[in-house]
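Bench notes, afternoon.
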Amino acid sequence: MIKSLYIHLIFIIHACILFRLIISHELFRAEDYRLEYYRNSGGEKFYWKHFFGTKLYHKEFITIEYHLTTSVILYKIFLTKDFLTGERYDSELRISIRNVVNDSEITPHLKPREYNIGNKKFSKNENFLTCNLFKCHIGLIYICPPDEKHCSHHSKGINLFYIGFEKSSEYNNLVLKLITKNNNNKYMFTVVVCPGKNWLPLYSSSEYIIAGGNYLTTLKFKDTQKDNIVRFVYCHEKGVSTFTMCGYLKQRFMPSINVGYQCDEYNKEETSRTHNKNEKETYMVSPSSDKLMCNHVNISDSSSLVIGVLPPGNNYGNVSAFKVNVINNKTNLYYGHRLHCLNIDDVYVHYELAENFLGYAINYEAKCKIPTLNATLSLKINGTVQEFENKTENNSGGMKIYAFDRRKIKDVPVGCHPVPDDMKHPALNDFYGLLYSTSLLMFDEASEKHIEVNNIQNLVSDRKYKCTLIIKGSNSKVEKLSYIKETEFIINLVGENSNNYIIWIIFAVFIIVIILLVAGVIILKKLQLKKKKSNEDLSTSSSTSPAQSKSSTQILKVVNTSILKKKVDVNTDMTKKVVTKNSNANNKLTNFKQKVVGKNSNINFAKQTENTPKKIVAKNSNLTFTNQAKNATKKVAEKNTNQKNVGNKGDSVFKLK
């Protein structure tokens, strides 16, 4: 009996719990819960707004610790310009939820709750949710059941709410604060503080991701393990984006939204509020070639935080262009630049006040000026300023000379560049590069006019050139400047003259070769004529002496036999002497009984008969050859036109015994 009663009791308890849950979900209606948000300062409410949310059914929530599917009421907050510029706009955003059925605040019962502000106080107020630079209590929140006084997360909650941000009709982003535009002071800029990575509660089911540009530094706090990003804003530009991004929110049930600061015109008093208002203007100095100082701060030092402001109107190519950036050892400084050395400790002091606000900004004015620098226009090739070959060259007019080898450079631009005379530092190499344009002119002697040159291939060696400055003001040229000096010089293209010398040498050699060839042809023709005449004389002589030809033929056979025998056996016992005869020498042969003389094809044969039985003289075109035989019984001279008997030898004499 007791056991049966116990079972029934357990069943009734679970049924009641289930009934309560069913009733609670049915009674959890969006029209019963109203969200209110407002500005707060000094315990007073400003710009109070309220609206009802939308109920979403069967929504799934998954984290590391739980997996829950339930209903949720969704609230979408959008911040308008009225909210951002209204009374006490420098304050935090506060949120509360009210049950309109019984006219009661449920905000004190919402979980999870974290500290509202840090700044070394770590206060927690249960009567409202806050959104400031320290913490923004948005995302998923819930009501803990009455019997769960210490529930840690919303897996045990009864009613769930989700708060997010959406764009307004005026701004597409979540604007933390408006930065007023200042059209009077072009050197004013603003330093803003952005939320850190732990900006949202741990169980918010939303995520804040840091992103964006204009980074200055990070504020780190050891006691709170928090960090905040410091960025800069410049609100003078026109026609471009005026939003400086800190990061963006990834949200459930609605699109992501960017978070940051917006430039807009709303309060003229803000334009006169500069933190360094009483600071005096100074000039940048350069105590050495590797240092640039502003207010005793080395602006090239990595430990220094220096901001450079180059306002619109200092770029001849784009009048509305501007530059605001952090200066480092690779930054170029330009005419019109002003600098400000930011004190980080000062920003830390301000942050204790800043985390009480939804957004926080500090205005500064750059007051360190860069003086006007004397400069000289120099030749620039392919972006590199050229050095003079020498500075004391004695030429026409005493002009300086640039010398370089054009053969090593193909199709690159040439022009002029203003180079500072006194203050030498890499950051100042392009000091006037944005403000003024230049032109390289070549003097044409034919037309007696200057011609603009833009490409290296258009340069002519040993011509006079001139670097001029083009100053544009309202699209018209104005008078020359005294601090930028124009120059005239001569350009010497190394290797151009040597190329001409080589061409002349080649041409001279070619002419000489042609002359030699012509002379050779003439000489050859003369030799051929002499050969023809000699052949005719030989024919005449042969026809008048048939008997002599017969005798010569017999002797030739003997000679041929001796030659063949010599080729077969050179080392035989017969004594033979071979003497090579030069075509220009005269040889005389004596003390032999028989003589044979072999001549080349160009021999002119002449026969003379005196008191001796026979005498023959062989004559070459370039040589008169005479053989005389003394005490001989027989003299024979024989001419072989085709050199068959002598065979590949010059003129040879064979002595036979």
